[in-house]
Design goal:
The structure is a single chain. With 333 residues, the protein is α+β, with helices and mostly antiparallel strands. It has two domains: 213 residues; 77 residues. 65% of the residues lie in helices and 7% in strands. It is built from 13 helices and four strands. A four-stranded mixed β-sheet has the order 1-2-3-4, with helices on one face. The protein is elongated and about 80 Å long. It starts with 11 loop residues before the first helix and ends in a 6-residue tail after the last strand. Pfam families: DUF389. It comes from Actinomycetospora succinea. This is Putative hydrophobic protein (TIGR00271 family).
């Protein structure tokens, strides 16, 4: 059937297809959900441990966690309390399962899986406002592809664009590695994506007049209360605040790197050393250097940074063939 309008009401067949796909009520659908989610969690956890982007993308495609999240949005639109509780329970239970598998995978890893040593972890522990914007757009595409069967072939791309299982795997891995602050960042990324999917999914389903179709076909539809919309908006605001803080920290880190890199390079050159890397991670300036004996003098680097106006910036100096030295903020005179 061809719709004259881009947001024409869904047909009864569309509604049956969407509800059948999103509301997992039969044993077959539930068993498939848990089996696929378990396998996706194993793939994601091992992919993060191996620092393999391709493996992690494979986990995104396999993971079925977006189904109950969009099911929550559909239940909100239809004001179906029972379906909403069932969908939320699947999301929460699935999240706990993935975190648990991530934690167990961390026990098998010989080294701590943290942002400083693993790029897959680093990319998921410091979410920013841009992640919320991306998740909102991706959630809208996912809901649109479900309602419109003629564009359903975009769903694998949506699965890759939205990150659900990998952040949860990172939560478990970083908890096992003793980095609860990084686990909190990864959990915030997951909650951001979930909230965005529910919010934009609700908007798209309302735009396609799913409620009107349900009523016209004799389905039982509850009353959509204004407070439901208020709660969804409040959740978006709740995740946007820490994301805004994260964005500011990223901006501040870039400014510090711009100021620190020439200072560190000059300090290393004066001692015939070579700067391997200068990064900003978790609120600390990380300097990695290599050179001939004698060992680098941390106090001289601290003094150089202070002289460049970076007195309040904590730093960490790591020698390629030596140890790591903390350079705390210099005390105020």
């Amino acid at each position: 059937m061809t719709r004259a309008l881009p947001f024409g009401p869904v047909t009864e067949d569309d509604l049956d297809r969407v509800t059948g796909k999103l509301f997992l009520t039969d044993r077959t659908g539930l068993s498939a959900f848990w089996v696929l989610l378990t396998l996706a969690a194993v793939i994601a956890s091992t992919g993060v441990v191996a620092d393999s982007t391709a493996t992690v993308i494979g986990a995104m495609i396999v993971a079925p966690l977006m189904t109950p999240i969009l099911g929550t949005a559909l239940a909100l639109v239809l004001a179906d309390r029972r379906a909403m509780l069932a969908s939320v329970a699947l999301v929460v239970g699935g999240a706990v399962l993935v975190v648990g598998i991530g934690y167990l995978s961390g026990l098998l890893s010989p080294v701590p899986e943290v942002a400083a040593t693993n790029s897959q972890v680093a990319s998921r522990v410091a979410p920013k406002l841009v992640d919320l914007v991306s998740a909102l757009a991706t959630g809208a595409v996912g809901a649109f592809a479900l309602v419109r069967s003629d564009v359903s072939d975009t769903l694998p791309g949506v699965a890759i664009a939205i990150s659900l299982v990998p952040p949860l795997a990172v939560v478990g891995l970083t908890l096992e590695s003793g980095a609860p602050d990084q686990a909190g960042g990864a959990l915030l990324l997951f909650l951001t994506n979930v909230t965005a999917i529910i919010a934009t999914g609700t908007v798209v389903l309302l735009a396609y007049r799913v409620r009107a179709t349900a009523v016209s076909t004799g389905r039982e539809v509850g009353r959509l209360r204004p407070r439901t919309v208020v709660v969804v908006v409040a959740l978006l605001v709740a995740v946007a605040v820490p994301l805004g803080v994260g964005s500011y920290q990223t901006f501040r880190g870039q400014r510090i790197l711009t100021a620190a890199q020439p200072v560190v390079a000059q300090w290393a050159q004066a001692r015939s050393w070579q700067v391997v890397d200068v990064t900003w991670s978790q609120g600390v300036l990380q300097v990695v250097a290599a050179g001939p004996p004698p060992a680098a003098d941390p106090a001289s680097l601290r003094g150089a940074l202070d002289g460049a106006g970076l007195t309040a910036v904590p730093a960490r100096l790591s020698e390629v063939l030596g140890g790591t030295t903390e350079l705390p903020v210099s005390p105020s005179p």
